[in-house]
Amino acid sequence: MKHVIALDVGGTAIKAALVAADNTFLHETRRATARDKGPEAVVAGILDLAAELRDLGAARFGEAASAVGVAVPGIVDTATGTAVYAANLGWRDVPLREMLGARLGGATPVALGHDVRTGGLAEGRIGAGRGADRFLFVPLGTGIAGAIGIGGRIEEGAHGYAGEIGHISVRPGPDGPECGCGGRGCLETVASASAVSRAWAAATGDPAADAAACAAAVAAGDPRARAVWRHAVDALADGLVMGLTLLDPGTLIIGGGLAEAGETLFAPLRAAVAERITFQKLPLIVPAALGDTAGCLGAGLLAWDLLATHTTRVPHATPTTEVSA
Question: Which of 60, 127, 161, 235 is such that its CA lies 20 to 30 A from the CA of 204?
Fold first, then answer.
């Protein structure tokens, strides 16, 4: 059976799968990223896992994987197949495509993509955005990134930076929170899951308090939690309306840890966005559908796309700068 290898490399774990042409997982596994052992160990783990999956696929399905798709964090140059920079993995200029190709015998093509864009590709084609010609995918996690979907592909922009909605300044000025990108008041400093966790910890005096606990307190009617939540939702709505004004998507897909709050997030967010629009058309605002499988599914799509185009450059992946980890 024809299949591809999909690898989704995260800061703590590598999620991997053998993926069929209909996007079903034929085999799934997960390994620790082992970043505590250094960047070389992380790369070695990726290469070893890819080789194991190649051998498993050949034994189980009678043929080796036709291609490999890899989603990685940080700065990704898909033209050269290089993981340029990933602070949480300690990477600088890792020629990952070349290394994987060599480890797999030189005959297996490899596609490299940015993790959020790759997850957005999956959500757009086979997840919450299925059938949507224009969508915006925004995961709310440690930071906030984005993927702009147009006609079944992810728009990369002129320089590979399209979709960085987390670095729109929604609370500018000297009092705006400092962002890792060097700016102040960026959306991710106010409305990410990390930002809500920090604000709720400060409000409660409990350093272990997090965004999930804040959401639970909101649902229970805690006025302190509601104030923290409203502050984040208002900022998120401000940022999303900027995105909607520029892109006019038909569907807005919200994912990441904060979206796990369900209607505790979506009900006030839909209302806040509706209050802010004037001439714009209100898109469908829906939760992401694929959860933590989006990265692997997207990596599989990159691999199948690579085979379909008969080229070593992946048209749907994005050379991009991602500072939100």
Answer: 235
Domains recognised in the chain with CATH numbers: 3-117+292-309 (3.30.420.40), 128-287 (3.30.420.40)
Q: What is the pLDDT of residues 215-249, one digit of tens each?
A: 999 999 999 999 999 999 999 999 999 999 999 99
3-state secondary structure 238-292: HHHHHHHHHHCCCEEEEECHHHHHCHHHHHHHHHHHHHHCCCCCCCEEEECCCHH
Place of tokens 């300044």: 169
Residue whose structure tokens are 């705006």: 176
Residues 6+ apart with CB under 8 A from 204: 224
Q: What is the DSSP letter of 6?
A: E
Which of 16, 71, 54, 110 lies closest to 307, judged by CA?
110
Give per-residue pLDDT as tens, 252-290.
999 999 999 999 999 999 999 999 999 999 999 999 999
